Amino acid sequence: MRRIDYDRELHENYARGRALTGRQLQVWIDAFAAVLPGRRPLTGLDVGSGTGRFTPALASAFGPVIGIEPSVRMREVAEARPGVRYLDGRAEDLPVPAASADYALMFLSWHHVADKPQAVHELARVLRPGGRLLLRANFSDHHPRPWWLDHFPRAHEVETALFQPLHEVIAMFTANGWRVTDFTTVTEPSSGTRRDMLDRLRLRSLSFFAHLTPDEQEAGFRSLERAVAEDPDAPAPVFAEPLLTLERG
Ligand SMILES: C[S@@+](CC[C@H](N)C(=O)[O-])C[C@H]1O[C@@H](n2cnc3c(N)ncnc32)[C@H](O)[C@@H]1O
Known about the structure:
alpha/beta, Rossmann fold, 9 helices, globular, binds S-adenosylmethionine
């Protein structure tokens, strides 16, 4: 699969296309709290922080956090909101001292990591012993099927190529001294109506679309538009998203 460079694509519409409601954000923060130690403050890293969808909320809920993001354009959007520090970096090369964080969140950034074995080592370097990695990732054998996805006939093939199977991700970490502490799913409340969701999808802020040809995208959107037109004001259906928590040995 071709690599997505967020400096060249997606950055423009990402914040709008992927915005979370306050309730959705709270559901995620509660899910993170459930798998993190109870003491506060916790020092955190948001690795692949993008436009900072989660970073300020992590700071409010848990304590000081640094957003680490390789795309300048994504960081610029995040930095427009003051209060959190963002640094240039990537999971394979984190610009922070060894054993300096209690947890790292990687929210839909793991599949973008080019050198995953190096990232496993680097994440172990920056976390304290017992530190947690919260991996909100899709897995080729455990990935959420949003209600709109099947309108794009090659979706399954693309997703299988984009994501590793769950056991492979677990094996990469456990072979290097990590252990799994939790595997759960989180269901965000609906973000609005089916029509709202269609409007957001049209912004193409999901990297999935970049792996389809323009013809495939157009045909998929035509099919989706017909389906949405049947009941545009119904709430967009929800789906369960995987969250894997690993502990550094
Ligand atoms: C789908 S976005 C997720 C952003 C943010 N976590 C969120 O949920 O809104 C994926 C992000 O991963 C970043 N990324 C790409 N390669 C990366 C790497 N090697 N390490 C960490 N992040 C990376 C991209 O630049 C992009 O901002």
